Structure formats: C-alpha cells, structure tokens
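Q: Hi! New to this. If I give you a protein sequence and the SMILES for flavin-adenine dinucleotide, can you show me the bound structure?
A: Yes, paste them in.
Q: Okay, here:
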Amino acid sequence: MDSNLIIIGGGPTGSFSALQAAKTGVSTTILEEHDRIGFPSHCTGHISLTGVRHLELNIPRMVYENEIKSAVFYSPSGKRFTVRFPHPVTCVINRELLDQHLFDTALKAGAEASLGTCVHSLLVENGYVKGVRARRDTKTEEFRSKIVIDAEGVSSTILKRAGIPTLNSCLMVRGVQAEVNKIKDIQEDTVEVYLGRKFAPGFFAWIVPRRDGTGKIGLATERGNPREYFHNFARHHPIVSQKLKRSRIESLVYHPISLGGPIPKTYYNGLLIAGDAASQVKPTTGGGIVMGLTAAKIAGEVATEAIQTQDYSADFLSKYEHRWKRKIGFDMKAMKHIRLMLNSFTDRKLDRLVSICANLGVEKSLKQVRDIDFQGRSLIRMAKNPRALATALYLLAISFF
Ligand SMILES: Cc1cc2nc3c(=O)[nH]c(=O)nc-3n(C[C@H](O)[C@H](O)[C@H](O)COP(=O)(O)OP(=O)(O)OC[C@H]3O[C@@H](n4cnc5c(N)ncnc54)[C@H](O)[C@@H]3O)c2cc1C
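A: Thanks. Here is the predicted structure of the protein with flavin-adenine dinucleotide bound:
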C-alpha cells in the first residue's frame, strides 16, 4: 500500500496528524500495531478544557467522564493545600473513546489505516526516509511514501533502530494506574495530588474521580518497582488507604512517562517525529495529550506543504520544529526547570511548601492564569505581581494540572 504520507501509530498524535493532511486531499495511511484503537489504555485522560477548545477536537459528549474545578495537594506528612477555580478548568475523558474519535475523524477526512500492522524499521534511500517496513499477520511488507510521521509513542523503538537520538532516559518515570470504585471522602469535581518520596519518588500520585464514586488512581516513580509503590500507596498511605477501604482496585496498567523535555531534533529528510515519540510531554505533570496534539497538527500541516511543493528535505521540514517550538518550546523549558526543582525538594521542604501555599491565600492570583497548559507564560505574567513568593509557589501548584 503506497501513500504520500505514512503515519506510524494510531494514538491521538498519529490520528490528529493524519486528519490535518487527509482533509487537504493528501493520501495518508496510519499503521497501527494493535487490532483495536485506544486499547490497551494506560492514561488518566485528564486534560485542560482550553486545550480541547484551541485544538477544536469536537469531542462527543460520551467521551467525557467528568469536569474538574479544583485540586487538593497533600504534603508528605498530610498537610493540605486546595486550589479552586470558579468554573471547570479541566476534564476527564475516556482515553479509549478519545483515540477512537480522533481515528474515526481522520478516516472520515479520507485517511486510510492498516491495523495489526507493526512497523519494524524505516526505509531509507539516498539519505531520505521513503517509507517503512512492517509486519502484518506473519508477512513483512514495505509501505512506500514521500514522508513518514513517527507517532509511535514513548517506546521510540523505530527511532532507536534508525540511530536517531531519542528521549532523555534520565528523566523517565514508570507510571502505573488502576480503576477504583467506592472512593470515600472525595469531591467529585476535585483531583487529589499526593507528594512525597516515600510514595512516588520523582513524581506524584493521584486520584482522579468520576461522578459515580469510581475513579482512576495512579502514580509514577523514578526508581523501584511501580507495582510495589502502587500497593504501598493504596494500602498504606494514611489518607488514601482510608479513602479506598471499601474499594475494589482493578485493571492495573503500566507505562513509562518521559519528563526530560523534547528530543534534540524532530525532523530529518522525509521524516517528522511527534507526540510522546518526540517527548512533547509536560515535564511537570507528564501530560502529553494537548502538547502532542499541538505538535501533531503542525506536523500534519508541514507534511502537507512539503508534499504540495515536492520538497521532502530536512531543510524544508525544519519548519515543523520552528513552529512547534514557537507554540510550546518556551513552556516546555520552563516546566522542565520546575520539574528539576521539585525533584530536588526533600519531603520536609515539600511539607513547608504546602503549608506556605495554604497560608498565603494564593488563589487571588488565579485570575492571571489563562492557560494551564502553557505554564511558562503564566510564570512571566505572574512575576509582575509583587507577591513574588506567592506567585512562584502558586505556579508550582498549578503545574500539577
Ligand atoms: C499512567 C499515565 C497517565 C497519564 N495521564 C495523562 C493525563 O491525564 N493527561 C495527559 O495529557 N497525558 C497523560 N499521560 C500521557 C499520555 O498518555 C501520552 O502523552 C499520550 O498517550 C501520547 O500520545 P501519542 O499518540 O504520542 O502516543 P501513544 O498514545 O503511546 O500512541 C502511540 C501509538 O503507536 C502505536 N505503535 C507503537 N509502536 C508501533 C509500531 N512499531 N508500529 C505501529 N504502531 C505502533 C501504539 O500501539 C499506539 O497506538 C499519561 C501517561 C501515563 C503513562
């Protein structure tokens, strides 16, 4: 099957890139290793409502599980700090349904797809990527194209095989998430964030509720066995173990999260790299959906322009990196600094931080935050506020969305 554009991966990034190209008439094929889109899902699906609006995702009602107005941060010793907005700022979506919605939208726009097709390697001729080699059933096939967008996710197997520099493994954490029911003492419009090295070293743990008493509980850790950390959190955390006393915990899934900021280069002759594969993930929270889709849109647009002008050179495709950096580059850098700062905090420091935030009444600064995805820009706006300490601390707090 030959196309002008081949997309590796039918995750949100792959489907959204495919949509941008297919709707302009570019022949586009998505290759996805699984037989079912969106499955298995490893993601909480907690995303900003501004992100949903800016990207014009037109998500059907049935994909939404909840809307969130508030977050509670628990320090290692159990001190609390609450941030409450007057209106919903984020939503919780069903990731499997979101992936299927984006995939179906790309197909409706004219993209084609081959499921159960695992890309093994890039086809390279005269220094240009000219397609991929993939396994379908038991056969190996070549899929030829003018451009390939790699949206294979965090594994980066294909990039590694091609010798392309990939993610910064130093800031990689191992995520684990489960479904729970009958959660006690939780507000249905509030996410809970638990800080501390004992339960989630190098990251944090979370409970994200739905409106029916069920929810998603997870954490990530920079070391050790995530399964052990998860059971320790659910069974032995003094606050969480009480909330989950009557809960059934099921559907545990594991997946890495890359917090090291974008990979060094996201374009080559005939190749663009987007989403988790490019580590376009917020280093503060591990949120990659809005960032990945922002870059995916640009990747699809630049691939289309390249096909229209028949210029597939790295020189032309560098537009992609210029454009996504203009949109999210600064915020990514700022968020990486915040992540490194948080990682350097001891549990005692985190306790003090949460206490200070709770006592300073930093919610007053909320009005200055227009977009929680772009935390670097929020920092600049807030730095104009003389209550610099409060704003800096507040920024740390919002960075958990
Ligand atoms: C525990 C956890 C919770 C998270 N919670 C959130 C959250 O609340 N909010 C948020 O914004 N982000 C969250 N994330 C991050 C988010 O899941 C990712 O950023 C997002 O999935 C990236 O999308 P993607 O399309 O780039 O990659 P993926 O979703 O990983 O999609 C990649 C696709 O490529 C396919 N593929 C891989 N290799 C091949 C191959 N060789 N051939 C063919 N197909 C292939 C895969 O099967 C998959 O379908 C979370 C991550 C974890 C681990």
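A: The chain has a mean pLDDT of 91. Let me know if you'd like me to explain how to read the tokens.
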